[in-house]
Inverse folding.
């Protein structure tokens, strides 16, 4: 019987946040602090001929000016293709070429304008479709020499930084056997995470050279490692501290500003240096979601069975793809969506362009590929006269089904999710025409997603029992708002049998909290959660051993219950955790064991590489999360405006550690998905971002939120904590295709690119009339 | 040249010397160390810097500090004392109307200003009052619920 897990406990960070007490990076003010600004490239692709910083250096109040030669090492998470300041070449508009630290931001700003850079413009690439051509200008001439993870396959002498292939069954034969084949193209534009907190970092270097960095970051340890490579430092000489994080969604998963403030701080004679990005900087100079072109070709039999699929994804990786390469990989191993298809050919190709840097964004490629896959599926269903929900049910992955990599799955809750959503959206009821000008429609989309991460990345946790029996739980999984501090505390509480209020969770300090690879990939509850179970079990084992000594009762006859170690047989044999927290005191006054510290470590079991040529492998990922959303929309055929009335969503969370927080994730995902569906597109013209503000780049406001009906399905994942699967990213994946399919249902027009603007809808309506 | 201004903030009279081009947000954060109001855009687009001036919610990034001379300001810091939260803050927690928390102070202050002027707002009133406060984490509905719950209980002042 679970007491804390599965309960909708109140957020542990609620009071700090509603009072404005919570400290984010930009809220930190250190004595002697200097303020940094960057000098940015005005060209998308150019050779740097000369940088003259002499005037900037002479400006009163300027303390440090650096250029690329001061930070020469190449870094990157999966592919080491970037330097923190450009060297020899710039590859996107806004790329930092120099940085300044001064007594005030205004002085640093003025100094930036005094830096003179001579460039020679180079031909640029603005589309992955151009970038893959053999005669395209090369953006990274040295690609062949870059270090990279073994799962990434860059192609030397091209702009292709990764190419993931799936070759399953015989796709040609499959298309021959198919009664119908439908092929369509889709486009997903660049969007930006738009976390309300802008990026900020502070660095300080002590007299012995030890670096401390404060930055709201999803991955303090991954950041530390990247910085160690960049600055030739041993890991114990770099401390990364993450204050509270004001939203991430992937944008704060990598290392960017940290690599600029450190070299400034190293030259600032112990003074701390802060770099705060403006909203415009965030749009142009942090990660954005890669644009993507998709070709989807689906072969079906008359009775609605998909027997062949050939999909190609071209990712617009931007100027550096250190992280984006792995999004292409994820797009590859998930390339058909959650369907059981015997013959598949897929190519997922990451291409350098002279656009801002693509990177992880909630969904990690899944939102993009599902927009294409789920619309093509809808096209097939409508053309063969099958109900779109029924068509999906027929082809859905079920127990015993195989993914595109040939992985045979068990414990698949997709059909249960589909059933819930069909019921909640009242799929069989349709009011199509509400007035002469307003039409309604319903659309549905399924999704799956796995954590996209190296196979062997670890998590760890420390459970420190305090003298009074309360607990400090140390982890480096970061709460970016998703509620992990609360859910992870519940996990510890469950094993230790003490209330949430008696546990402090402490996160985000690489000198104090134990190793966590990253807070990404919807892996926190699964990976970090498992490590916490092990740490708490370890502490429990120590407590039972001491109680066994105290009572002379075998450990197996003792249990932990409501904060006590108690005999299963004699209920009077009972000792408080507090009484053993510092060790056992024997009758003669001597002590045994010492303070209780539990340690736990976790690596997902048996995750293995796939074949480089065929992409086949029986366990390429730790687990899969399945979900379904359906949307009801109303389209104004006079204006083309689309209003989302209602979204029904169901996800297989395996086990919801905190059901209310799971629902809040799903609701937030739906609204973010709605933004990408109807509103959001970074307008980039010849490399220049034209709309880097919330006036010109609209994200959903309170009035845009639809009615939402959320269901949680629980088909346990055997290796997850009480069966839990990751949920945070999957929440936004099917929203855009469900809305697109609903628009088609309403007006019979297919919008193949995002966002589904009134302009596109109206144009489609007019073309259809013709 | 700096201007000497005085105002009442969270019930306390303050005198400050400020540059004529300094925004209220910068003065709050830099001179008064009131960091609850956040900068999300610096251009009045996101509402994270919302504070209440003379009973009206304002984007403090768009108001000059000199403009608050002689006025009364309420920031998120003035809403609670220790663990004694304003009922509206309690309601945000109860309804899970926050995630990362970065927009929350601004959101709470906009909602507080609404409840001060309209004790019984409708759902539409709430959506209108909070239309200038962006949140990227939540699905917004719980924020609406949190405010309506307070209005229903009549604990809004």
């Amino acid at each position: 019987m679970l007491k804390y897990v599965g309960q909708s406990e109140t957020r542990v960070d609620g009071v700090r946040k509603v009072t404005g007490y919570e400290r984010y990076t930009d809220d930190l003010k250190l004595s002697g602090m200097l303020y940094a600004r960057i000098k940015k490239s005005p060209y998308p692709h150019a050779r740097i001929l000369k940088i003259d910083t002499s005037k900037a250096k002479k400006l009163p109040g300027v303390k440090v000016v650096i250029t690329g030669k001061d930070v020469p090492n190449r870094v990157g998470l999966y592919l080491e293709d970037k330097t923190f300041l450009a060297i020899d070449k710039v590859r996107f508009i806004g790329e930092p070429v120099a940085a300044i630290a001064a007594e005030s931001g205004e002085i640093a700003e003025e100094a930036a304008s005094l830096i003179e850079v001579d460039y020679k413009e180079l031909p640029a690439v603005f589309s992955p479709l151009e970038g893959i051509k053999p005669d395209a200008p090369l953006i990274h001439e040295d690609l062949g020499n870059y270090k990279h993870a073994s799962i990434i396959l860059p192609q030397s002498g091209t702009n292709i930084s990764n190419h993931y292939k799936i070759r399953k069954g015989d796709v040609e034969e499959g298309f021959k056997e198919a009664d119908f084949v439908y092929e369509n193209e889709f486009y997903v534009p660049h969007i930006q995470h738009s976390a309300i907190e802008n990026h900020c970092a502070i660095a300080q270097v002590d007299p012995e050279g030890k670096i401390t960095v404060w930055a709201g970051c999803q991955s303090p340890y991954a950041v530390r490692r990247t910085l160690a490579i960049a600055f030739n430092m041993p890991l114990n000489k770099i401390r990364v501290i993450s204050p509270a994080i004001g939203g991430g969604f992937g944008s704060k998963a990598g290392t960017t500003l940290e690599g600029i403030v450190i070299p400034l701080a190293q030259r600032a004679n112990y003074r701390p240096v802060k770099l705060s990005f403006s909203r415009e900087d965030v749009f142009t100079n942090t990660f954005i979601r890669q644009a993507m072109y998709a070709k989807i070709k689906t072969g079906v039999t008359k009775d609605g069975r998909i027997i062949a699929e050939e999909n190609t994804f071209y990712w617009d990786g931007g100027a550096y793809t250190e992280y984006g390469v792995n999004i292409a990989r994820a797009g590859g191993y998930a390339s058909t969506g959650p369907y059981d298809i015997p013959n598949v050919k897929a190519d997922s190709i990451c291409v350098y362009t002279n656009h801002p840097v693509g990177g992880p964004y909630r969904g990690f490629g899944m939102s993009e590929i599902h927009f294409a896959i789920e619309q093509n599926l809808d096209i097939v269903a409508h053309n063969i006269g099958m109900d779109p929900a029924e068509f999906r049910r027929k082809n859905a992955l079920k127990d015993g089904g195989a993914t595109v990599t040939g992985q045979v799955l068990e414990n698949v809750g997709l059909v249960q999710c589909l059933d819930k959503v069909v019921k909640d959206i009242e799929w069989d009821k349709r009011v199509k025409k509400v007035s002469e000008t307003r039409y309604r429609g319903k659309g549905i989309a399924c999704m799956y997603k796995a954590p996209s991460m190296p196979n062997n990345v670890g998590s760890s946790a420390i459970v420190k029992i305090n003298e009074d029996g309360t607990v400090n739980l140390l982890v480096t999984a970061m709460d970016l708002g998703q509620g992990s501090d609360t859910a992870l505390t519940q996990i510890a509480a469950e094993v230790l049998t003490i209330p949430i209020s008696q546990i402090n969770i402490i996160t985000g300090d690489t000198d104090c909290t134990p190793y966590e690879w990253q807070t990404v990939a919807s892996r926190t509850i699964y990976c970090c959660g498992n490590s916490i179970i092990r740490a708490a079990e370890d502490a429990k084992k120590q407590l039972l051993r001491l109680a066994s000594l105290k009572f002379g009762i075998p450990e197996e006859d003792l249990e932990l219950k409501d904060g006590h170690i108690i005999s299963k047989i004699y209920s009077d044999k009972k000792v408080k955790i507090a009484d053993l927290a510092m060790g056992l005191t024997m009758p003669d006054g001597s002590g045994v064991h010492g303070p209780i510290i539990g340690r736990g470590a976790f690596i997902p079991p048996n995750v293995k590489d796939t074949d480089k040529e065929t992409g086949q492998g029986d366990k390429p990922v730790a687990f899969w999360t399945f979900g379904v959303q359906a949307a009801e929309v109303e389209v104004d055929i006079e204006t083309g405006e689309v209003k989302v009335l209602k979204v029904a969503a169901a996800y297989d969370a395996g086990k919801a550690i905190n059901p209310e927080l799971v629902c809040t994730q799903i609701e937030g995902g739906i609204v973010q998905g709605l933004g990408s569906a109807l509103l959001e597109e970074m307008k980039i013209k010849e490399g220049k971002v034209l709309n880097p503000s919330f006036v010109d780049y609209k994200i959903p406001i309170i009035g845009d939120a639809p009615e939402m009906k959320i269901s949680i399905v629980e088909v346990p994942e055997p290796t997850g904590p009480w069966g839990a699967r990751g949920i945070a990213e999957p929440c936004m994946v099917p929203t855009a295709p469900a809305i697109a399919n609903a628009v088609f249902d309403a007006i019979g027009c297919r919008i193949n690119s995002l966002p589904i603007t009134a302009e596109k809808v109206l144009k489609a309506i007019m073309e259809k009339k013709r | 040249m700096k201007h000497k201004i005085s105002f009442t903030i969270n019930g306390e009279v303050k005198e400050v010397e400020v540059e004529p081009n300094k925004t209220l947000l910068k003065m709050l954060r830099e001179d008064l160390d009131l960091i609850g109001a956040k900068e999300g855009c610096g251009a009045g687009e996101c509402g994270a810097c919302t504070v209440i001036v003379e009973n009206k919610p304002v984007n403090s990034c768009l108001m000059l500090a000199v403009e608050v001379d002689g006025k009364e300001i309420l920031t998120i810091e003035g809403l609670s004392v220790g663990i004694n939260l304003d009922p509206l803050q309690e309601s945000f927690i109860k309804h899970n109307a926050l995630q990362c928390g970065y927009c929350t102070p601004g959101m709470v202050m906009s909602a507080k200003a609404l409840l001060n002027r309209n004790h019984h707002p409708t759902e539409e009133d709430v959506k209108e009052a909070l239309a200038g406060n962006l949140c990227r984490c939540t699905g917004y509905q719980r924020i609406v619920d949190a405010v309506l719950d307070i209005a229903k209980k009549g604990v809004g002042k």
Observations:
- Chain B has a mean pLDDT of 96.
